[in-house]
Amino acid sequence: MRRLIVLLTLSVGVAVGYRYGYEGSGYSYAGSYDVDHSVQYTGRSYYIDYKEPRWCYPLRIDNGNVKCHSPRGPNYRSMFGTRCRIFCDRGYRLIGRRQVECTLTRCWSGISRCKEVRCHTLPAFPYGSYVCSKGIRMDSQCEYICEQGYQLEGDRTRMCLENGQWSGSEPLCVDYEPPRIKCPGPREKVAEPGRLTTRVYWDSPRVKDVADKHSAKFVLKGPPPGSEFGKGEHIIRYVAYDRERNKSSCKFTVTVYVRRCPLLKPPVHGYITCTSAGNNYGATCTYTCEGGYERQGTYKRVCLFNRSWSGTTPSCVLIEINVDVNSVAALLDQFYEMQRLLIISSPSASDRYYSLQINTLQEAACGLELRQVTIVELVGNPPRVIGRIKEQQLSSEIVDQLRQIYYLSRMHFNVVLIDKYGTDRERYIQPVTSSELFPFIDNYLLQTEERAILQLKENFCN
């Protein structure tokens, strides 16, 4: 009777325990079962006699499989003492024990389950993106793509491996593309009037970098806008740099033309002095006659934009002095801005200083003519007074007025140098030589143009 009660208790317990399974184990089963068995006591231990070979509930693994070995053979997979190895499908990894055993408590010796293999989410990819075939699951292949203007360095693709790690390493997007720069078009200008240069302006170049957007900068290699440019072709270059120091350049030309008129020829017994380069647009040329000659016609001509000269060519004719005048002012007006005067006053023609002075000046006649100096002689005292300019005679009244205006003594030898504006510039009480007279005139009385002409003809009198 006691043995029957024990058998009934064990039968009921097995039926209930199997029906509800082992929650959270990862194992699954279908249906319920009862194991019919008997327990015998041998005096030292119990002996279980199975009528049905199932003791633990059938072992099943989601997303995996089980290989079991039973002491009573392959047909007894859930009996007491059965050992099972657990294997996960590809793409899953085992969580828990790899090998379990059916124990006396009718439970497996451990809990295991198969968890899907997943890699970590890839970080954001600077200056690029990636596309994955299966997200972060195993065998997912992610392809990296760089933004426009960048090039990929490193692994282009990475795969989620069985160990939950990504293959390879994270690549980089590197900016190898230089910025794009566009210079303004070429500039052509004519030199400004009276100058050989002109001021040229232009807009800054347009710079665009696909990668850096607005971070590109440019550097000017050459004169800045608004600079003065001379005749000829000038190359202006800009160099653009991006954040990675990639560079590109562009250039354009600035061409300056100088419009020129035909070269002017000086008139006979005259010369020309011009501003700027002499015959460029806007240049002004002034005509000057040599000593003893006066200009007839226009004294100034301008080079026009159409490459022609204004006015007509003047001529230089021998000066005709009108000595038949009523006043010294009328006489001196004929020399104004044209001739310098060297007035010699002597008490008599026999004065030794006078004779010596005339001889000295006759030897220096060529040099006096180059320096535009006219000799005026005032000799004697009333009633026997003589005045002359070259071969022309002056009246006694004009002689007396000249002596009074320039404070020339009748009783002594005097020499006075008058400039082109009628001003007394230097006096001598003894005969003056060319070596004294010419340096003074050259240094203090000659104009710039006259000095240049003198230098060209300084050997003419030798």
TrEMBL record:
It comes from Scyliorhinus torazame (Cloudy catshark). The lineage of its organism: Eukaryota, Metazoa, Chordata, Craniata, Vertebrata. This is Sushi repeat-containing protein SRPX2. One of its GO terms (molecular function) is signaling receptor binding. Residues 174-258 form the HYR domain. Keywords: Angiogenesis, Cell adhesion, Cytoplasm, Disulfide bond, Repeat, Secreted, Signal, Sushi, Synapse. One of its GO terms (cellular component) is cytoplasm. InterPro entries: DUF4174 (IPR025232), HYR_dom (IPR003410), SRPX-like (IPR043555), Sushi/SCR/CCP_sf (IPR035976), Sushi_SCR_CCP_dom (IPR000436). Residues 66-116, 117-175, 259-318 form the Sushi domain. One of its GO terms (biological process) is angiogenesis. It is found in: Cell surface; Cytoplasm; Secreted; Synapse. PROSITE patterns: HYR, SUSHI. Residues 1-17 form the signal peptide. Coiled coil: none annotated. CDD domains: CCP. Disulfide bonds join 146-173, 289-316.
